[in-house]
Amino acid sequence: MAEHDMKTFGSIAANPYSWPFDGVWSAQDTALLLLGFQNGMIAELSATAELEAAASLLDAAKSAGIAVVVARRGVDGAQDPLAARRRLLGDRVPDRHSPEWQISDRLALPEDTILVDLGGDNAFIRTGLEDELLRRGVRNLIVAGLPTEGMVHATQRAANDMGFECIAVADACKGTSDPRHTAQLRITTFGNGLFGAVAATADILAALKTSQE
Amino acid sequence: MTTPENEVATGGFWPLGGPVSKTEIALIIIDMQVDFCAPGGWVDQLGEDVSNTRSVIEPIRDALDAAREAGITVIHTREGHKPDLSDLHANKQWRTRVHGLGIGDMGKTGRILVQGEPGWQIIPELQPVEGELIIDKPGKSSFHRTELADELEKRGITRLVVTGVTSDCCVQSTLRDGFEYGIECVLLEDCTAAVETPNHEATIEILKSFGGRWGGVSDRAAFKAMLDGAHGEKADG
Known about the structure:
heterodimer, A: Rossmann fold, two-stranded antiparallel ribbon, B: 6-stranded parallel beta sheet
């Protein structure tokens, strides 16, 4: 077992509670979820700052040995009734393997990245992701992505029902409007963190540094 | 009433339009339980205001009467956990205990959100009748670790009219997952509420702004009009 797998990190000063709820997390039991950082969506939301934040989280996760999950939304012909339905309602869901569908080159993904392809928003539905995370012993999820009220929130809601302890990274997520982004994160933290906690990229990076000695 | 703008955005009551048979439609009433919306229930014991969640009892009753009259399938959900709490995640219990009275703890209406306890029951005003489906759920989404998706498929139901509490929590989770399971969902705006009004309003704004991406937003007057327009004989019971 690699040395970094055994490190534990200090808890993160988050809203509305110090994350994780029981104060204990390590590289071994944590995954970073990067959701929807695809060229088309990044351009549509002008999300370059959020992409930079995600890139810094990714670098920190890789050096700490934290598992990385990347989710891509796209249409794959008749196999994607959800995406096809969304297109009927005017949503620009990209074709798989098109330039818009590709994950941004800015994210240098590790070879063992867990890639999830989906037509909807919830990265846990019909993807096997829950089993894969449980198989690896992951309990904690650091969540970043686009848009906040779409793939990010749908996935975090589902993860929370499954018992994963989640933290959304506010400045590594962007909504289709600032009020929607803010409202969705407020709903996340309502009721002492009904769907988990919220923090900033700097808070996550600071906590990861506590173990780097 | 549904506004003309909304009509354009959602293509009528259903985001993708009709026609639709009554046998394909179900009304789902989410978590109208004593603990969430009755005086003396859990939320009330926490000192939170239950007037918002209580305000939708009569509108839901009206929608329920219309659904029963039309003979469509009616589904009730109850959030709750087994008495041994084996299906309760540690972080979920921790979050609720911060409020002073957590899931599984003994309150004035029995153990909070535990199956079989008085507080866990559906409120008297919206009691299920024989033949209606009751779904017990351990999470926020009515599809999480329940038989709901299988039951809908078995009964040939492809459309779900969503009501109940709370809009920002279990209702939103159910609507979003309904979309993921390929079910056409429409939320009745006047039949759902949250404890905090800003969260309710933000939820509705987000759902409306995408023109039915996850599901439509309508109201019970349009629901009743839709039932009148749906074809097919009344389903038995």
